[in-house]
Amino acid sequence: MSPLLEANVAGIGFWAPRLPGWPLAREVLLGNAPAPEAPAARVAPALLAPTERRRAPDTVAIALEVAARACEMAGLAPAALPSVFASTHGDLPINDYMCATLASTPALISPTKFHNSVHNAAAGYWTIGTGCTAASTALTAWQHTFGNGLLEALVQCIADDTPVLLVAYDVAARGPIAAVTPSSGMLAAALVLTPAGHAAAGRRLRCALLPGSAPAAGNAGTWEPLLAGNAMAHCLPLYAALARAEPARLDLGIGPGSRLQVDLAGAA
pTM of the predicted model, to two decimals? Predict the structure, then answer.
C-alpha cells in the first residue's frame, strides 16, 4: 500500500437543478426530504460583475456557486486558497457551437464563446471574481476526472501544508458530440481540504493509491435517478458518504489499473 494521504474536509458545496445546495441534497439523500419536482433557476454567481455574470456559461455559473459555498462553510477566504478545477468534458454546448460554426460560417465565431471554450474558463472566472492570486489547476481525466482531481488537491494540501479548494462539474452534451461524450443535466460539487491540525477542521479523509480498477459505483441512494446520467456522477459515492455520519470506505478510479481508496472518518 502507498503512504496514506490525509486531510480534513472542512467545506462542502453541491448543486444540481433539483438539488440546489448541499443542505437540501444531504436531506434528500438521507430520506428526510423529497427532491423538488421543479428544477431550480439558473444560479447567478454574485462574486462576478454584472457584465461577467451575463457572459458566464452554465459551467462557470455552477462551478463558482459550489466553490463559494464550500469556502463559506469552511470559513476561509477564497482569495487565499489554491484551487483545482476538474471537469470531464468542459463546456460541451460551447464546443458543439464552435464545431458547428467553424464548419458552416467560421467568420461568425463569437469571441465571447471562444473565450469560454477553454478548459480553465471556470478557474479564470473564479480567480478574477475573488481576486485570488494563488495557484490554480484545471484538469480532466475522462471517467476518472473526479478521482484525479481529489488526488491533485490532496497532494497540494499536504505538500504545501495549506487548504486547497477542489471544484468538479459537468453539464449536458449537445449535438453530434453527445453520441461520443454523453452527459445529461448539470452537476457541480466542491470540497475545501485542510491539512491535519488546521483550525478549519472537519471529517478526516485518509486516501491511498492502490493497484486494480475501482469497482462500478454503487447506488448513491435517492440521488441516483436525478444525477446518474451526468459525466461527473462518479463523484456521488463520496458525497453520499459525506451526507451520512458514519465512517465509510470507497474506491475512486484514477486510471486503468489504479484506484484511490478513500476512508472517511465518522462525523464528530
Answer: 0.94
